[in-house]
Amino acid sequence: MTAAPPHLVMVTNAVAPDKLGGLERYVRELSRGLVDAGASVTVVSKRTQPDQPGDERGEDGVRIRRYSPPPKSDPLFAARYPIEVHRGVRVGIARAIADAGSRRVLLHGHFPVPMLGSALARKPYVYTCHAPVHRELLSERRNSYALPSPVRRTAVGGLRAAERHVLRRAHTLVTLSDFVRSEVAALDARDGARVQLIPGGLDTEWFQPADERADVALATTAASAPRLFTARRLVERTGVDLLVDAMPAILRRIPGAHLDIAGSGPLGETLADRIRATGLEKNVRLLGRIPEAELRDRYRRAHLAITPTTALEGFGLSTVEALACGTLAVVTPIGANAEVVEGLSRLLVARRATADALADAVVSVLLSPDFSALRLRARSHVHPRWAWPAIVDAHLALYDHLPSLR
Q: Which residue has the higher pLDDT, 297 or 78?
């Protein structure tokens, strides 16, 4: 007899739509899929804006219990943050357990700092490692904290130790890619050996090709006036600056190429200056953050999507989104990128994460005689194996072996 669906307590740093990064969307969409499968879910997460309610139930049935972290501008931020997060998460978990009613209560963590209290208390939990967070603090997050360099080094070291402890104490460890599995092994070889791989999921009913796609016309314009698209956070590790630097070489071989860049972040002004300085205003546009419907539409209308990552790509969500919409994606050989397109075509992986290599890959795919045939295979490469129903089923099977919190 199959056990009744459990109540999941998802503990994370932030959740969509409060923040719209890959991890935040993953937690929300996994939670929504679990609710659709009959489970109940409470997400424990920090506020990203002061006016967000402490208790909210979304239209998708997911309940969010938020707590307030200290402001990043506080000179004592590094000292106060773990204390206030621990307090907020402890209260949030207690309330989430009360939300469960008579259901079995299971704990699933997605970020190390808010999970540290549970690790120290030796509570049973599943932990999904999305990426090594202590390494992100050195790159993407380094400009967002008011920390002098010596203090920052201490904070990174402390975060690395906390992350390692959270991994070690987890009942079950999950990663979304072999790349992240290797990162876990670098922290602790024993933990790397016990990782279970469950890929990231995608709403492939939303991200799907448009009915009116005309592949013959697309193949023709790919060689003369291709539309290139990338949706990335504008930070160093996502490589958007690399893609802008690749555009002059692309335009020398395909003068009609046009690139649209969706996303926001601290590199926005630098990229705008670089586009103007290199005379690319007519061929490269910064769109800023765009709504989900427009994101899907731009994937559908693009000849080619590009994921130009230079570091720490834990899954490659934007690549999967493009492929699900029937659009090919060129990637760099960094992180999990190559894993996502493996088995589709070697042409889609640039030789290196450099502007020249990226330009070569983009041109090679656009001018390939196999362009139309590859494009027709794009969606079937990710659907249904990375559709949420399959990923939710894998998690429910995993949860069967996890002890309850009560």
A: 297
